[in-house]
Amino acid sequence: MRGILGPALGGVVAAAATFLPAAADMLGHGAMVNAVAVSPDGRRVLSASWDYTVRLWDTASQTELKVLEGHDASVNAVLFLPDGKTALSGSWDHHIIRWDISSGKELNRLDGHVNSVAGLALSRDGTRLASASWDRTVKLWDLSTNSLLRTFEGHQANVMQVAFALDDSAIVSAGYDQTLRVWDVATGQERAVLHGHQTGVNAVAVTPDGKTALSGGTDGAIKIWDLVALKEIGSLEGHDGFVTSIAVSKDGKYVLSGGGDRLMKLWDLKTRRVVRQFAGHEKPVWSVAFTPDGKYGVSGGYDKVIKVWNLANGTVVPPRS
């Protein structure tokens, strides 16, 4: 992604944010879209929904390829594994399911949580999974053996999202107890509790170098944290309402966020300014993701809709046959 997104947006970083309508959608879910993920090659999108399903989409044609059925409740989180052939989803039914994408079949389950699985994160080498749950724990899994390695306990309310950090030696978790917590992967000990949000924290993402985290809360704030110094170092100001989701570009220069104001916003992390905002969802934007090449953003909404956006010119991407 380096060198693709930066030059394309360089001329508009200092300009005022524009308000952009959308016209093309991926439609099929029968309820809100809780999460979206883009495959490593950028050719496919996975979506997770309150309708109990995971759906696989072709990015170019924006057509539905498969419906993955197996969960017994809302599916809250989804991600591709590095091979692009398998994926993981987490649900309100307490289960994490691994899927074979080509067949749409369930391969196995990771069971251990006793409440809703709200967030999933993958280590850089794809061998370990971290899961966040409303049972107030974070769990670490070995994906080669499908075994539970460790449980991290300390949050005083639902844990909403997790991310690996600091060369995968740490995990950062976001909770409804208004905190971010930094955990030592090797020992299971809590390294730090980061205070700053005034209400529950919905989302956390970490920059590619593993040293900076961004968190989004129901207080409408996006906070920036130095994970080495373990302190808040800034914020991204602009959402009018709660922040639901955050994604960081592969080169670490840009951030996408979704919010209750029905907008997806693109931020320049260095200047901490909004580059653009993308309007088109009729209800809150529940999830956002970058494509690997950095050219596009994907948003999933409470309105059951998935949209693909051109980040360089701000337009919605029409389907291609």
Chain-wise SSE layout:
Elements: H1 5-9, E1 19-20, E2 33-38, E3 44-49, E4 53-58, E5 63-69, E6 75-80, E7 86-91, E8 96-100, E9 105-110, E10 117-122, E11 128-133, E12 137-142, E13 147-153, E14 159-165, E15 170-175, E16 179-184, E17 190-195, E18 201-206, E19 212-217, E20 222-226, E21 231-236, E22 243-248, E23 254-259, E24 263-268, E25 273-279, E26 285-290, E27 296-301, E28 306-310
Parallel strand pairs: 1-25
Antiparallel strand pairs: 2-3, 3-4, 4-5, 6-7, 7-8, 8-9, 10-11, 11-12, 12-13, 14-15, 15-16, 16-17, 18-19, 19-20, 20-21, 22-23, 23-24, 24-25, 26-27, 27-28
What attributes does this structure have?
28 strands; globular; mainly beta; single chain; 321 residues; Methylamine Dehydrogenase, Chain H; 1 helix; four-stranded antiparallel sheet
